[in-house]
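Incident review: delayed structure delivery

Summary: a single-chain prediction request sat in the queue longer than the usual turnaround. Root cause was a stuck worker, restarted by the on-call engineer. No data loss occurred. The affected request and its eventual output are reproduced below so the record is complete for anyone auditing the incident later.

Affected input:
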Amino acid sequence: MLLVGRRIALAESCTGGLLAARLTEPPGASEHVAGGVVAYSNEAKSRLLGVDPALVEAHGAVSPEVAHAMAAGALDRFAADVSVAITGIAGPGGGTEEKPVGYVCFCVLADGVELARDPVVPGDRTEIRDRSTTVAMQLLRRVLRGEESPL
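Output delivered after worker restart:
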């Protein structure tokens, strides 16, 4: 397993803890999962993960900048080696022309490497949330394996 000898921290918004659930499903998960925060509100992002409210104001809660700040906050708060952050618009409402339903921002930090993506994930609310956890797992795998190629 790629997480052996590492501690991972999670910062989730639109997925509401689904990534944490996937990572903690296998026996022995406590060996590598340090913890996670479901920071659904902007206040929680700020208070629990240290995301600067000015960053949210400038770029929006769903933005690559906020995803990075969430990942950095989780890494720090849990004294972890690896972190993953997800923030997005799962719908069915809340989308705009600039940031439609399905727009999700991901950030993985590990070993001084950052891998970030901000695709529009297709599907309904359930599918967007589920697919987002899969994308996050794939990004995490790429970082831990040292792969640079895009999804």
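Verification: The first strand starts at residue 8 and ends at 12.
Action items: add queue-age alerting; document worker restart procedure.
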